[in-house]
Fold this protein.
Amino acid sequence: MRSLRPARELRNAIDAMPLDTRRAMLDALERNPIVVGAYAMPGGGVCPMLAAHRNGGRTDYAAFARAWDRYARAGKQARPATEGELTALRTMLEASIADQHVTAPGALARAIAEHRRALRSRLRREEHVVEPYERLDPRELDVDVEVDADAVLSR
């Protein structure tokens, strides 16, 4: 069975690239024949980093090239990347781009604010009085409440 280490190294190298380069590389995978084991092939294939560079991702990141070749088990001769290798690279790029949005500064605060807006909206729809962040007096929680069982059951 293949070790997961090359896959982890490739994902770490992808995560270390600038976001614009990751996006350019993802777009370039659809437009260029991708190769393993060389910067470019005489037949027309290019490595993913060169493809990204040609697609606007102006980054020189040798760690990615090493991780890509190690992941794809590059030999002495350059060769076209397999569909499986391209699918793995595409998936890692997509996941890395998605993670960037989740872990961006302020992402948690935005998620909390969105949740609170949705909660207030739902409460308004259900005709409840909405007073955000109302603090309750703990003594009020211990008060006995009389419940009209007939009124509750008739609902």
